[in-house]
Amino acid sequence: MEGYAYRQYEEAAEALRARLGGFAPRVLLILGSGLGELGGQVENPIAVPYGDVPHMKQSTAPGHEGRFLFGTLAGRKAAVMQGRLHAYEGWSFGDAAFPVRVARLLGADTLVVTNAAGAVNKGYSVGDIMLISDHIKLFADSPLQGPNAEEFGPRFPDMSHIYTPALRDSAREIAKEQGITLREGVYMYFPGPQYETPAEVRAARLLGADAVGMSTVPEAIAAAHCGMSVLGFTLCTNMAAGVLDQPLDGEEVIAAGQAAGPRFAALVKACLACMA
C-alpha cells in the first residue's frame, strides 16, 4: 500500500501555519460521533475545513462537521477535530491518521481521542464513559503500512503503552473528583459501517474487549509511532448487538452522545487543564 510522502505532511502543516498566524497547538483533540459539545467551547477559534488542508480527505460520516477548530480550550492551545475519517467511508488507515501527523508537525505532543461505541461488557450501561486502557485491532490495515517516515518514528514501533499511563491516572482522579463513574477497559476495532453481529460481539468479549467501535485505532497508532502521549475515552452510546434483544439505530447513538455531552465535556476539559 502506498503511503503519504513526508513532504505531503509538511505541505499540509505549512498551509495551516499560514492560516494560524503563529498559533501552535500542543494538543490534538478528536471529537467522536455526537460529541461536538466541546467545539463550541473553544476560545478565539480559527476554523479550517478539512477540504482546505492539502492532501487531507473529507469527512462524510453523519454528525461530523469536517473541520478543525484551532484555539484555546481549558487553558491549552488545541487543535480540535470536529469529525474524523473512517475506513468505512472508503479512506485508508493512513488517511485517517493523516491529521495526527500534521498536528505533530504543528507542535502537538498529546492526542486526546474520543469515540462513541457499543458496550460489550455486560456490566456497562448506555451513557457510561470508558477510559481506554488498550485496544484490539487484529488483522485490519495499519496507518504505518507503506514506506516508513523515519522523521516520525521507527519502522517497528513498540505498542506496549499506546494509552499513556500517567494521563490515565490523572483521568481517574479527575473523574472521582467530579463524581463521574469512569469505566476502564479495552476498545476493539471493527471496520464497519455495519454494526457488529451478535456472534462478533461474543467473540470480542471472549478476547477481552469491553467496547466495540469503528474508529480511534488508526489515530492512536500513528500518535504512538511519532512519540505523542495518548488519552482515549469511549462514550458507550448503545449496548452492542446481542447484549439486548433490540436492533441498533444510528440516530439513537448520536442522541445518546448528545445527552451525555455536558458530563463528557466537563471530564475532558478537566483532563486538558491538568496536562503539563
Structure in a nutshell:
With 276 residues, the chain is α/β, with parallel strands linked by helices.
Helix/strand layout:
Layout: H1 6-20, E1 27-31, E2 43-49, E3 67-73, E4 76-82, H2 93-106, E5 110-119, E6 129-136, H3 165-178, E7 182-189, H4 198-207, E8 211-213, H5 217-225, E9 229-239, H6 250-259, H7 261-273
Parallel strand pairs: 1-4, 1-5, 5-9, 6-7, 7-8
Antiparallel strand pairs: 2-3, 3-4, 5-8, 6-9
Helix pairs in contact: 1-2, 2-5, 3-7
Can you give a write-up of this model?
This protein has 276 residues and is α/β, with parallel strands linked by helices. Helix content is 31%, strand content 24%. The protein contains seven helices and nine strands. It has a five-stranded mixed beta barrel, surrounded by four helices. Strand 3 (67-73) and strand 4 (76-82) form a beta hairpin. The longest helix has 15 residues, at 6-20.
Order of helices and strands: HEEEEHEEHEHEHEHH
How does the overall form come out from the CA principal axes?
Answer: globular
Major β-sheet strand ordering: 5-8-7-6-9
Q: What value does the Rg take, in angstroms?
A: 17 Å
Structural class: alpha/beta
| Multimeric status of the protein | single chain
Number of H- or I-type helical stretches: 7
What's the main sheet like?
5 strands, mixed, barrel
Give the integer mean of the pLDDT values. Answer: 91
Hey, roughly how much beta strand do the residues contain?
15-25%
Number of strands: 9
- Please mark out the parts with pLDDT under 50 across 5 or more consecutive residues, or reply none: none
